[in-house]
Amino acid sequence: MTNSPDQQPSEPGSRPTEVMRTVDLARIALFAAIIAVLGLVPAIPIPFLPVPITAQTLGVMLAGAVLGGWRGALAVLVFLALVAIGMPLLPGGRGGIAVFMGPTAGFLLAWPIGAFVIGWLMERYGREGAFVPAFLASIVGGIVVIYAGGIAWLAVVAGVPLWTATTGSLAFIPGDLIKAVAAASVATSVHRVYPALGRTGG
Amino acid sequence: MLGIYRHGTSYLHRARPATKLSGLALVAMVLFLPATPMNVVAASLAATVTVIAGFAVARIPAAVAFAQVKPAFIILAAIFAFHLIMGQWITGGLIVWRFIVLIALAALVTLTTRVTDMIDTIETALNPLARFIDPGRVAMCLVLAIRFVPVLANEAQAIREAQAARGAKRAGPTAFIRLAVPLILRGLRLAETVAEALYARGYGQRAVGDGPAKDGSTEKGREAPGATQPE
Fold first, then answer.
1. Do the domain assignments include residue A162?
2. Within chain A, what is the greatest distance between any pair of CA atoms?
3. pTM
4. How far apart are CA A154 and CA B79, in angstroms?
5. I need a labelling partner for B71 at 20 to 30 A (CA). Which of B104, B129, B165, B170 fits?
6. What's the average model confidence in pLDDT over B168-190?
7. Which chain A residues are Cβ-neighbours of B107 within 8 angstroms?
8. In this structure, are residues B182 and B190 in contact, taking their beta carbons and an 8 Å threshold?
9. Which CATH number covers residue A134?
10. Which chain A residues are within 8 Å of B65, Cβ to Cβ?
11. What ipTM does the predicted assembly reach?
């Protein structure tokens, strides 16, 4: 699982790096499960939004924002692997390889890239407990990257022009903006408790 | 936590997952490669027959098959509507048909293959890449994640109930934050506990089969290049 060029730096009261390798493994598995659980909790109604939004993509943003680029992307990959091997973990109990054959599979496939970009931006430009960099990183990775992948995929496999695919996806942007705010807020709170968590190189 | 898998003893249930996955990949290629409309129709017809025969062999009820394709209907209807407006209902119909067949066939693979068998298949498939990624660690990570899901689901439920008891509103954007922060903090503690328990039982101390670890030894051979720089 660990092919990242850089591992978790030891935390205060440091433990052997071998333990940290296993802790990393457990944290990647943990965030895969958190993405799953955030998709399972009932959708939360938001005032002024037509559809209640599920928190699953919030989990994707959080994986990158909390764990950093490489481990965040790996956590999302593990989650997608669980879905692919037949766990009903997407909203509505969907799962299986079938979801990767559908017209909206591009969004799913862009999730790990989005998580990586969020983590990478946070590592580069973020400061511990700073909201604004985390929010901007969540927008770039969690909205721009994921929609780019999803819309491009939809346009290619469904034979629909890019512009049509884009306007069809716009309805979900307000919900995702709220999730970006939530992701940044949660990540800054978690980093205050676990200062060393997202601060790795790769 | 049950999967989408439906128990059965048919030929498809007993077939190796790798065979089924290769078949799916083959059909997907056949469906997307042809350029002329007539070939697309021929490929789609052949794939449709394959799918129907597959569901019959696996003895999976039509309702179960339908439930697997249904979630895609809204977006497929939108795609068809677009092509209809453009005056190309044949193109739209072919695209939608292709999707339904492919989704149904993929669902058939999932319905007839156990999650554990899939994990074994992933582990085997990664063996040639063992120099770069440790297949055992990948499998361990998948299994850990599966085990974490019900634990965290219970935690999430407990957190929401505790907050509701204290009068917190369930709606609004802040509901996400109020749920996610304690969930992640508890989860991170759980992850560390599990990792230390694994380590205490010898996991990750040496590559499997290398014998007992010596104090302070590093993993040889299995280490990713340049990994683990102690500070």
1. yes
2. 56
3. 0.86
4. 9
5. B170
6. 85
7. 96-98
8. no
9. 1.10.1760.20
10. none
11. 0.85
